[in-house]
Amino acid sequence: MRLNSPILTAILTLALPCFAISPYDIESYAPKDVIRRDVAVIGGGASGTYVSIELRDLNKSIVVIERSSQLGGNTRTYLDPKTGVPINYALQIYHDDAITRNFFARLNTSVATTSFNLSTSPVYADFSTEKLLPNYTVPLIGDEYLRELHKYPYLEDGINLPQPIPADLLLTTPDYIKKFNLQDSAPAIFDTPAIPGNLLETLMLYMFNSLNTLFLDEEAGAAINNADGDNSELYRNALAELGTDVLLNSTVVSANRTGNVKLVVKTPTGNKLVIAKQLVVAMPPVLGNMNALDLNPRERGILSQLSGKPYYSGVVQNTGLPDDHVYKNRATGTAFHVPTLPGGILLNPTRAPGLFYYWFSSETRLSQAEVEGAMRDSIKKLQKLVSSATTAEPEFVAFSDHYPFHLSVSSKSIRNGFYDAMYALQGYRNTWYISSLFVIGSSQLWNNTAAMLPRIAATL
Questions:
Q1: Are 101 and 224 in contact (CB under 8 A)?
Q2: Structural domains of the chain sorted by starting position, each given as residue range(s) with its CATH number in brackets
Q3: Most buried by CB count within 10 Å: which residue of 49, 109, 121, 359?
Q4: Burial (CB count within 10 angstroms: exposed 0-12, middle 13-18, buried 19+), residue 106
Q5: Which of 14-18, 36-40, 48-52 has the lowest mean pLDDT?
Q6: The organism sits in which domain of life (predicted)?
Q7: Is pLDDT of 89 > 80?
Q8: Which among 352, 107, 351, 348 is positioned nearest to 360, based on CA atoms?
Q9: Cα 176 vs. chain centroid, distance in angstroms?
Q10: CA dihedral 34, 37, 39, 43 (to 10 degrees)
Q11: Strand-strand pairing, 270-281 and 34-42
Q12: Is the distance from CB of 349 to CB of 324 less than 8 angstroms?
């Protein structure tokens, strides 16, 4: 039989193994769909936007992969069509520090000093039972809280825990308050509306990490925001500068982080192959976000311990409520009047007449319809409490889902060294973590990212 017999050729062809084409093979993509960069950044929120601009200023090439249609993360702004007034209904203020002011200036965005509440006349009410708390007041944080806070300076700018970990930090907030006689400060401690979930179960470690010196400074007046009240302008300016280096409405569908980082990214115009020297994770690194990133057992074992909580915000009009008050939810039947969940946390007036923004917390994820339905019911109850003649029907005009919000782990994970293990992941497999895992506010995120930039740049 001749070696070039068609029959023999067919037999040999069938006997050869069939190899699938690798999704990381550049030959599988058109040249325009292969993106080579020094750094790939996943997440275009506060951290991701900041690190991208700073790396570009260091003459490093970047690409940002953002799943939503805009940059800014938890910064959300609704523009009132009647008045043109911008309404920030999620992030409100920034700490007044050099790095924050420099970042605004870098993006040609003017700032002005500000304060958190637009209303100085709070109404405390149980949003679920139609009961007012007429004698309820919230004093300033007392010296006894500051004394306790200052015992743990390593929680001010991260979660850099000593060994052994102080057992008191793993008490729930109510238990800590009782143990150290912080009852006078309790109303102010539980008046921090941006901490999600059941505050009666929140570990004091996370309360100190959130209600820290910077937060208290902001409440005391060391706060700024966009000069014209539109906090999203900063991110629009960043997007204009970053241009095609930002892939909006895009997600990573698979990755290979052996050697150079290779990411297959689903975009509105088809899949792209991103090849980068380093990867910066600027999104919450919970497993639901990280599963596509080629995790090895070490990474999966650490990240699987993380969870975030549901939190929602939005804008509502036609409430029928006087807009010279901020309405705050305080339960009548819980310890320290902590709101029952799910439920609205506050309903705050805005500079646009008749428009309020609200914040809403839950222990389980809800749909937009469920959140807005619950807020509608609360507003109807508030109508009866403060303006019984009105029958206005609330109209919801903006909504944002901030899940997973304020990442945390169990007390068992903390005792077992979760944070040491998480810090040790920095740079491992060419990957860096800069999202709101160790600090919360945008200004702290920018400061912490600035401190980490030299380490990232050194790898390039």
A1: yes
A2: 28-75+228-307+409-458 (3.50.50.60), 116-220+311-402 (3.90.660)
A3: 49
A4: middle
A5: 14-18
A6: Eukaryota
A7: yes
A8: 348
A9: 26
A10: -40
A11: parallel
A12: yes
Residue 125 to residue 87: CA distance in whole angstroms: 24
The pair of structure tokens assigned to 264 is 């297959």
Q: Would you say the pTM of this structure is higher than 0.90?
A: yes
Positive/negative CA dihedral, 396, 401, 407, 408: positive
3-state secondary structure the chain: CCCCCHHHHHHHHHHCCCCCCCCCCHHHCCHHHEEEEEEEEECCCHHHHHHHHHHHHCCCCEEEECCCCCCCCCCCEEECCCCCCEEECCCCCEECCHHHHHHHHHCCCCEEECCCCCCCCEEEEECCCCEECCCCCCCCCCHHHHHHHCCCHHHCCCCCCCCCCCHHHHCEHHHHHHHCCCHHHHHHHCCCCCCCCCHHHCEHHHHHHHCCHHHHHHHCCCEEEECCCCCCHHHHHHHHHHHHHEECCCEEEEEECCCCEEEEEEECCEEEEEEEEEEEECCCCCHHHHCCCCCCHHHHHHHCCCEEECEEEEEEECCCCCCCCEEEECCCCCHHHCCCCCEEEEEEECCCCCEEEEEEECCCCCCHHHHHHHHHHHHHHHHHHHCCCCCCCCEEEEEEECCCEEEECCHHHHHCCHHHHHHHCCCHHHEEECCCCCCCCHHHHHHHHHHHHHHHHHCC
- Residue in the structure block whose two tokens are 């930090």: 169
Among all chains, which residue has been given the structure tokens 């906090």? Answer: 231
**Tens digit of each residue's pLDDT (9 = 90 or more) over 90-149:** 999 999 999 999 999 999 999 999 876 555 689 999 999 889 998 899 988 999 999 999
Indicate the length of the chain as a whole number. 460
Gap between the Cα atoms of 312 and 439, Å rounded: 20
CA distance between the termini of the chain = 59
Q: In angstroms, rounded to a whole number, what is the distance separating the alpha carbons of residues 66 and 18?
A: 36
Q: Assess contact for 407 and 436: CB atoms under 8 A.
A: yes
